Amino acid sequence: MKARTLSTRGVHIVEKYALEELKLIYRVLHGSLMENVALLDAHFFTDLQTYLHRRAQAEGVDVGDHGAWDVWLGNEAVGCAVRLEKRVSLN
C-alpha cells in the first residue's frame, strides 16, 4: 500500500504514521533543543512542527496559545511566567 504524503515546503511527510507517534517524536526533539541547537535549523524539525501545527489547527487548537499547544501535544500546560523564568539566550 502506497503511503499518502503531505507536502510542506517541498518536503514530503509520510502520513501513514500515527499522529501520536509524530507527537512523541516532536516532544523528544523539542525537549532536546538545548543539547542539540542544530535542530532549530533542521528542515525535518521545521516540517514536522508545521505539519503538527496544521493538524492541531484543524482540531480547533490555537497554536499561538502555548498552553493549548502543549496539551494537544500531550505535555502538561505551562504558564507564560514559568516559560520566561526558564528562558535562556542561545548566542
Explain this structure to me?
It is a single chain. This protein is mostly helical. It has one domain (5-86). Helices cover 48% and strands 9% of the residues. The protein has a two-stranded antiparallel sheet with strand order 1-2. Strand 1 and strand 2 form a beta hairpin. Helix 1 (19-31) packs across helix 2. The longest helix is centred in the middle third of the chain and has 16 residues, at 43-58. The radius of gyration is 14 Å and the shape is globular. The termini are far apart. The mean pLDDT is 82.
Topology:
Blueprint: E1 5-8, E2 11-14, H1 19-31, H2 43-58, H3 66-73, H4 80-86
Helix pairs in contact: 1-2
Features of this protein?
single chain; 91 residues; mainly alpha; 4 helices; 2 strands; globular
Describe the largest sheet. Answer: 2 strands, antiparallel
Sequence of strands across the biggest β-sheet: 1-2
| Extended strand count | 2
Q: Looking at the structure, what is the overall shape? A: globular
Stretches where pLDDT is under 50 for at least 5 consecutive residues are none
Work out the helicity level.
40-55%
How many structural units, i.e. domains?
1
Number of contiguous helices: 4
Percent of residues in β-strands? 5-15%
